[in-house]
User: Fold these one by one.
Assistant:
Number 1:
Amino acid sequence: MKNKILSAILCLTMVVTMATGCNTKGSSESTESTSGTTETNSEVEKEFVGFAISYTGNDFMQGLADMVKQKFESEGYDCQVSSADGDATTQIEQIENFVTMGAKMVLVMAVDPTGLKDVGKKAMESGTEIVAFTTKIEGGETTYVGSASENEIGTAIATLGSDWVNKTFPDAADGSVETVIFGYSGTPEAADRSKGIQEEIAKNTKCKVKYMEPESNTLDAAQQAAENLFQTNPDTKLILCYNSGMSNGVNAYIMSSGLSVEEKATFGSDISAEVMTNIGASKTNASIVRGAVSLGDYDAMWDDLWVPCKLILTGQKDQVKPEYLGETELITADNLK
């Protein structure tokens, strides 16, 4: 009897032990599973990148903002874009906000680069790298990415205009082709581009050059400036613009004004769908946007930009060069792709 009782106790003990073991194993598996889920969540948590863009007031700039966001996200990063709408103070606040949000890197197209040095330095000191894009922030950037020097861009814009003058008015006398520059000097870099336009077009002695600055470097401002210009100087033949958004504004006025278009032209820089359409239409004089300086299409710009950004985001900042410069291309209706 005692043996039967002892056997029963042993069996019961084994059952309890096995049950406890099963529960322990199940608990362990549950813990491992939960831990695995936590690790997975940690792995998919995306690092944050900010893009502080100066403005998105034309097709090119809006397209650029959309492209940068999409490209960073396709590389596995969370990207937020903030437009300063041309306000330098707003841009400083946006950069500070990105830093507070824990951005690993902030890409900056400056409204006023001279006012961003301090906020850029503070950002870098707190662990957020600053990539200045198209406009340098001297002393407040990790690196600078641009298509070319601003002066070179201005020179290229004027070269397009000068070539058009020589082709359209081969026998023109010196100082007979009324030429206006719609410049912009809101930043030192912008002033350098405008200076490049002035210096290069001055080499063409056929051109009688006048420099002026619309209220801003936007399509609407240039359209209004063009209206005012042609009311006082209807013989203007060539308008060289700081950017292609302004060229589109000039074109918008001319094409709605009833003025003749055959011997008129405008040129600027940056490429967008609207600019390309207008350049193509100039072949039949359905537009006076007869060319533009391309700083590279969006894909080319991204390829240049991604080189230092990838190094920064993957912990290889020590391999980042101080600046990365691309090349310009002169686009006209004759070589339009």
Number 2:
Amino acid sequence: MPFPHIIFRRAGLVELDTATVDPVVSSPNEVVVRNRFSLVSAGTELACLAGLESWFQMPGTPGYIAVGEVVARGEAVARVAEGDLVFTYGPHAGLFKIDVTNRWGGMCIRVPATLRADFAPFTRMASIAMTSLRVSRIELGDVVLVMGLGLVGNLAAQLAALQGATVIAADVSARRRETALACGVAHVVDSTAPGWKDQVRDLAGRNGIGTLIDATGVSSVIEEASAVVAHQGEVILLGSPRTPHQTDLTAFLRRTHLPPFVDLKGALEWRFPTYREEFVKHSVERNSEVIMDLLASGRLRIEPLYTHRLPPSKAPEAYAGLRDHKDNYVGVVFDWSQT
């Protein structure tokens, strides 16, 4: 049976195509989902489109954030039922299958009735951001600097504030800084301005920056911003570094080994198990459920970040906008009812 799907035909070429998908369950752990909304993860998907991710083969269907309706499930699946609206790591496709035992792509949990279906895909980006909080030592009264105010960085800043921190967020884009203020971030700084680090230090006051969360993935930014981190502070890599950067590594590492004793931590979401485990407090599943509650209650704001709801036929326009007009294209959702 043919269903629409977005395809990266080759580097730089995005198309809407059809593929045959058998809507019948083929294994006991399988769930068949009819897509309703999928969200673009701009950083990773643009890297795939540019041919920079070796694990993504072209032609291929991108995407790993989808909310849809369960149309069938295998006999071993107990978490969801037919007719449930579920949050998944599914692709940009009209119909897809998920093996719920798959460590990397098996996420499939119910969406609360109190949460708008088209808001639910933002759970993934917020749970990615939440990993930076889970690995941190952020406590009530701490001061946190977030570098980069794209979707993930903005959500990390909001979550740090919900954890009790005073948040300073820096970005090169005036539009993104304005959006952060609209989302309730306390302080924003233009990271291209001369003396921006002094401005950060002034805002941080006597406590200094206890935690730096980098959401840019740009190694030069990480190196420069880490200079403002206070004694016994921490630098958390939320964005994935992808491009080479030449520097004096010894000088950078001495800040960890010697005073000011700054810790360096990675915050990739996969450091935690996918589903709950008896002797592990955090999991991607638990983080996702916490996020959905925050979204449903309005404590985590996505309206200023939700810039586009498009039919999948507009996929070429969407990826071009995310690549070339980053200030205007931030949260891009494909509406699969429009196919």
